[in-house]
Design goal:
Distance between the termini of chain B: 48 Å
CATH superfamily of chain C: Ferritin, core subunit, four-helix bundle
Largest sheet of chain B: 2 strands, antiparallel
Distance between the termini of chain C: 37 Å
Largest interface: B-C, 46 and 50 residues
Radius of gyration of chain B: 22 Å
Oligomer: heterotrimer
Largest sheet of chain C: none
Order of helices and strands of chain B: HHHHHHHHHHHEEHHH
Keywords (chain A): Oxidoreductase
CATH architecture of chain C: Up-down Bundle
Strand content of chain C: under 5%
Number of helices of chain C: 9
CATH topology of chain C: Ferritin
CATH class of chain C: Mainly Alpha
Pfam family, one (chain A): PaaB
Protein name (chain A): 1,2-phenylacetyl-CoA epoxidase subunit B
Number of strands of chain B: 2
Chains: A alpha+beta (95), B mainly alpha (352), C mainly alpha (241)
Enzyme class (chain A): oxidoreductase
Strand order of the largest sheet of chain B: 1-2
Number of strands of chain C: 0
InterPro entries (chain A): PaaB, PaaB_sf
Number of domains of chain C: 1
Structural class of chain B: mainly alpha
Chain lengths: 95, 352, 241
């Protein structure tokens, strides 16, 4: 899949009622509809009754806590350098 | 699943999940300890070293030595490639699985491996490399995948042997990676290990059923173990005396045990499991060493490992050709999806 | 006359052969994400097949379980529609097959969920949700391929032209069956027409309506499919796996 054709999406999943959506990872898809379907297949293969959000990674503005950013190599401004990754939902055993 | 046979777990079954959960707890605990007040300051290299020393996680926006970044990109990418290529030997038996239950389990397992490949590509992307670049590196042969997948699956029992031995070796390799110093990789590995807990068990169950079945089935199981044993030992990579990348990776807490330590752990684990199966590990020199409190065993043929890594295993060409063909034949579909998305965006613009 | 056994066997065979074909895509899909999606759909079809074949075996009362029915019948004894046994072709052909199959299975399983037979009703209730997802997935791709590039439009239209004649068999009237397939036609037509319209595709004008699957008269493809699927099981008579 070509990245220029297929932007990166960040995926947020509500594991159960009563919990907020949590970042679970990212994926590539050409549009939102496909991103949502792919997210269902990739990140909720073992769960039922979840709610999923997909957000274009390019739409996320990240804070830069220190001056560290000044030292980043050019890759630092690429969208896929997002802050968190693969939070395993609480209490989901044998995911 | 993933070997260590290119430059880069623990007890299976019950022990595996416990260790993964311990790694996950350690990750949370480290996060809670925080580093309040500790900021990067002027000396970024010192700050990086402090974070590693304190067993805290390096995150994507942190400064990191270029060599650390490169080592991780290579290791995570090769791990991802291994998951994707590793689908083929087992996928070879989906259409012929001998019962509908086995067919369903195998389909789900191969599907999981695709998922693991995607988690890992995404983790590599946090280091500033795109998935396209990584896929190109695989397809052009500039990055490797685990050499174990260059062996053929000749019988159904091979599916069992892959689950027991290959997934078993991969687990021994992967569980320590749940404590890797790079946060996205550690978190991806925790998720992968949890999902893989069923893979090894299903392989073991296949072999157990065969070994307790008809004489022909038992012979099939023994033949598979005979063929997969030494290649599985080779998955841990060259002996420590010849391993080039280990020391730096250990210092950075990317790698936590040496190739030989992990290989020994794997052998010790397998002996008793083989007894329960009623199958023989094809090593006449295998015996308990009371002094070392470990089994003595025959080393795999490392010259063969080097040949397979170089591209001269039984299936290297076939595996690469298969992947290249799938990628090439899918090009028109990916282009269509991109063209459709562009049309929809234009329509939205016109409407707005 | 179709009794509950024949009816259940048809549905089970449709799902089983569809799963076998979809499983062939594993490691070959146009994108890695799609590999996972196709495997999900194959797993759903296989799951439905196992429930249906198990129940068919019970209805028959001859001691055949799901594996005996799947692995120890010859092609003349299979009752699946021809549509599912057709080779996968390119991704467009597979999506055309999936669109037509799921546009048929959604109203079928929905009707089944309300039928008098409790077992069939439970299977229908479970499978209709899965089929709705399959329909959604197929529609999504048919729209993208139909309205994507010139090449994808050409391939998708060719796939629809190739597969469409095989849909007529699905609706052969059978008033005695728990669900009469003829009653599903209007729903199917409405679904398919809407998707194809949106995808800038058209239905072919043809009078050719191949059929025979329900009577065990198949295409040449089925015997090869079964030869591969059954080879190992048949090589070890009576073995457990």
């Amino acid at each position: 899949m070509s990245t220029e054709h297929t932007p990166l999406w960040e995926v947020f999943v509500r594991a159960r009622r009563g919990l907020s959506h949590t970042h679970v990872g990212s994926l590539h898809a050409p549009d939102a509809e496909l991103a949502l379907r792919n997210a269902r297949d990739l990140y909720t293969r073992r769960q039922e009754g979840v709610s999923i959000w997909v957000v274009p990674a390019s739409a996320i503005t990240a804070s830069s806590p220190d001056e560290k950013d000044a030292f980043f190599d050019p890759a630092a401004d690429k969208v896929y350098r997002h802050p968190t990754f693969y939070e395993v939902p609480d209490g989901v055993a044998h995911l | 699943m993933y070997g260590n046979d290119f430059p880069a777990g623990d007890a299976p079954g019950g022990g595996l999940l416990d260790e993964v959960e311990a790694a996950e707890a350690a990750l949370r605990e480290a996060a809670e300890r925080g580093r309040r007040g500790a900021t990067a300051g002027e000396d970024l290299a010192a700050y990086f070293a402090e974070v590693i020393d304190a067993d805290q996680k390096i995150e994507p926006r942190d400064w990191m030595p270029e060599a650390y970044r490169k080592t991780l990109i290579r290791q995570i990418a090769q791990h991802a490639h291994s998951e994707i290529i590793g689908m083929q030997p087992e996928g070879n038996w989906i259409s012929r699985a001998p019962s509908l239950k086995r067919k369903a389990i195998l389909l789900a397992k191969v599907q999981d491996e695709a998922g693991h490949g995607l988690y890992l590509y995404a983790a590599a992307e946090t280091l500033g490399v795109s998935r396209d670049e990584l896929v190109d590196l695989l397809l052009s042969g500039r990055q490797k995948y685990s050499s174990i997948f260059n062996y053929p699956t000749l019988t159904w029992a091979d599916v069992g042997a892959i689950g027991w031995l290959v997934d078993g070796a991969a687990i021994v390799n992967q569980v320590p990676l749940c404590r890797c110093s790079y946060g996205p990789y550690a978190r991806a590995m925790i998720r992968v290990c949890k999902e893989e807990s069923f893979h090894q068990r299903q392989g073991y169950e296949i072999l157990h059923t065969l070994a307790h079945g008809t004489p022909a089935q038992k012979a099939m199981a023994q033949d598979a173990v005979d063929r997969w044993w030494y290649p599985s030992l080779a998955m841990f990579g060259p002996p420590d005396s010849d391993s080039t990348h280990s020391a730096q990776s250990m210092a950075w807490k990317i790698k936590r045990f040496s190739n030989d330590e992990l290989r020994q752990r794997f052998v010790d684990m397998c002996v008793q499991q083989a007894e329960v199966l009623g199958l023989t590990i094809p090593d006449p020199a295998l015996r308990w060493n009371d002094e070392r409190q470990a089994y003595d065993y025959t080393q795999p043929d490392y010259d063969e490992l080097m040949r397979v890594i170089k591209g001269e295993g039984p299936c290297n060409r076939q595996r690469m050709e298969h992947r290249r063909r799938a990628h090439a034949e899918g090009a028109w579909v990916r282009e269509a999806a991109a063209a459709y998305a562009a049309k929809q965006r234009n329509k939205e613009k016109v409407a707005a | 006359m179709t009794g509950p056994f024949d009816f259940t066997l048809r549905l089970g065979d449709d799902a089983l052969i569809a799963a076998q074909r979809l499983g062939e895509w594993s490691t070959r899909a146009p994108e890695m994400e799609e590999d996972i999606a196709l495997a999900n759909i194959a797993l759903d079809q296989l799951g439905a097949a196992r429930l249906l074949l198990t129940y068919a075996g019970e209805l028959e009362g001859a001691g055949r379980d799901e594996d005996a029915l799947a692995y120890l019948r010859d092609d003349r004894e299979f009752r699946n529609c021809l549509l599912v046994e057709l080779p996968n072709g390119d991704f467009a052909v597979t999506m055309a097959k999936l669109l037509f199959l799921s546009a048929y299975q959604v109203p079928l399983y929905t009707a089944l969920a309300g039928c008098a037979d409790e077992r069939l009703a439970a299977i229908g209730a479970k499978a209709r949700k899965e089929s709705a997802y399959h329909l959604d997935h197929a529609s999504l791709w048919v729209r993208r391929l139909g309205d994507g590039t010139e090449e994808s439009h050409r391939r998708m239209q060719a796939a629809v032209d190739e597969v469409w004649p095989y849909t007529h068999e699905l609706f052969t009237p059978d008033p005695a069956a728990p669900v009469d397939p003829a009653t599903l036609r209007a729903d199917f037509d409405a679904t398919v027409t809407a998707v194809l319209d949106e995808a800038t595709l058209t239905l072919p004008q043809t009078s050719w309506t191949p059929a025979g699957g329900r009577d065990g008269v198949h295409t040449e493809h089925l015997s090869y499919l079964l030869a591969e699927m059954q080879v190992l099981h048949r090589a070890h008579p009576g073995a457990r796996w």
